[in-house]
Amino acid sequence: MDIDLTPKLAKQVYGGDGGSYHAWCPNELPMLKEGNIGAGKLALTKNGFALPRYSDSAKVAYVLQGSGVAGIVLPEKDEKVVAIKKGDSIALPFGVVTWWYNKEDPELVVLFLGDTKTAHKAGSFTDMYLTGSNGIFTGFSTEFVSRAWDVEESVAKTLVSSQTAKGIVKLDAGFQMPEPKQANRDGMVLNCEEAPLDVDIKGGGRVVVLNTKNLPLVGQVGTGADLVRLNGSAMCSPGFSCDSALQVTYIVRGSGRVQVVGPDGKRILETHLKPGNLFIVPRFCVVSKIADPDGMDWFSIITTPNPKFTNLAGKVSPWKSLSPQVLQASFKVAPEVEKHFSSKRTAEEVFFPPPN
């Protein structure tokens, strides 16, 4: 496999006093284009407001830092105003209109990962803004806008031209935005740091998986997701997606090592991961990670709404199901060697605590 899998950091696309938007470029991370995956990151300063927009792609949003408010309008539905905080995950189906606001934190940072098969450009999100210097209606004549909105042409001109910023603005400190409602979070937002754990290995790590059961809108987005928190010096079992899905991983906290092995048993990636890194594991390739002493957390999307994985070590691995004779023949070893191998990892699964 010749494609470059080296993890990359996002680069700023635009920004100002209210904040900035960053994205990963398919030219620098070729697997984005190869896998039809987009990745971006919104950072809002205090009182920063990301203007209403819709995207050419379905996405999963994950709040990396801070707290704030989001407005979400599903097609032909009323606006849902929700409070968001660190650890929140939101499924954003195709056609949804969103806005984002940081009311009081020093910085609100939101990660976006999603499928770009409907996008203008493979591997990139294109947002279409409703207002601002690059808003959709700046491209229409005043006559068209006034007739569409049923207002005088002078009013239409004022509405279209008054907001001169692009994408992100900074509101006055006293400006009153709509207040969120707790009920709006139901079925719309799942906090991965507070949700019931799907995997919890003492000394190893913990996982929360987003799927159609705990966040139904994931089904409309077409991607599942998970938050993995690997303990210090612990290891994540070598494994692969057994339903041909790609795994797109963003390092949230901590650091560690990763190895990816592809066809013909060739190691196609070996590197040290740090916060902000994004990398993609190709279909059927096997990946494993070992955290540094401070541990490592990552958020991933998997290009199927209900992902399935096969782990190649631990008590749930295929090794535990294969007969001793098959193992002896496959490894070409004596029974006593096979017995030593098969008697290991009888308790641990998915994550392995550091050696004593």
Automatic annotation (TrEMBL):
<feature type="domain" description="Cupin type-1">
    <location>
        <begin position="3"/>
        <end position="157"/>
    </location>
</feature>
<dbReference type="InterPro" id="IPR006044">
    <property type="entry name" value="11S_seedstore_pln"/>
</dbReference>
<dbReference type="InterPro" id="IPR011051">
    <property type="entry name" value="RmlC_Cupin_sf"/>
</dbReference>
<keyword id="KW-1015">Disulfide bond</keyword>
<keyword id="KW-0758">Storage protein</keyword>
<protein>
    <recommendedName>
        <fullName>Cupin type-1 domain-containing protein</fullName>
    </recommendedName>
</protein>
<dbReference type="InterPro" id="IPR014710">
    <property type="entry name" value="RmlC-like_jellyroll"/>
</dbReference>
<feature type="domain" description="Cupin type-1">
    <location>
        <begin position="195"/>
        <end position="339"/>
    </location>
</feature>
<keyword id="KW-0708">Seed storage protein</keyword>
<dbReference type="InterPro" id="IPR006045">
    <property type="entry name" value="Cupin_1"/>
</dbReference>
<dbReference type="InterPro" id="IPR050253">
    <property type="entry name" value="Seed_Storage-Functional"/>
</dbReference>
<comment type="similarity">
    <text>Belongs to the 11S seed storage protein (globulins) family.</text>
</comment>
<dbReference type="GO" id="GO:0045735">
    <property type="term" value="F:nutrient reservoir activity"/>
</dbReference>
<dbReference type="Pfam" id="PF00190">
    <property type="entry name" value="Cupin_1"/>
</dbReference>
